[in-house]
Amino acid sequence: MLVSIFRIILLTISGYLYYLFIFKDMNSIPTILEVSLILSLVVVIIFNRAKSNKRFEEQSNIDNINNMPQDQFVLYVTEMYKRLGYNVNLPSEAEKKYCDLIMFHRRGKICLKCFNHEIDLSKVDLAAFTKQNEEFKRTKFMIIANSFCDEELKKTLFAKKIEVFDKDFLNKVIMQFQDNHDKKRSFLKFTKSHNDNIIPGDEKSIIDKDPF
Q: What is the pTM of this model?
């Protein structure tokens, strides 16, 4: 959805620039060259975006995620949360001591700690993470782990205002991404073979909602 909106905005800007600089003055060669350059950049941006989406879809497989090293897993989580509507940044040198990603959403700042492999969170030293959580009351702290977490531990950490999203959450997000992608492809094929104005159902999903 966000990708489609992004493309519409780019195409709208391109059309406006075409009208402003070319259609109104067809004899302006320098302007034509400038706008041609802008249009070329827009095409490159859209192409790179499509390539990024394809790469993300290929990686959105739990078997691939299981084999990811920590740095690649963090990059995957970055792309995942961007597609969920978050603004994601790398942490500062000071923030790297206790988190892997800094995210911003309508609810404010979020510090995210990532664990890319099967791990018992009850045996992980979260002292630095917990300490920062106590000091920064307005910052939300979350953990995303490629492992299943005991419900009692989730409750214990939640009492400390730390939310845990485990492998079950990853599986649900991946399945929803794939389901939405398959529905989109099926819909495009259907509309191509049947010249009808059909609007897909506005189904609620984990992607449409704010899961946090």
A: 0.65
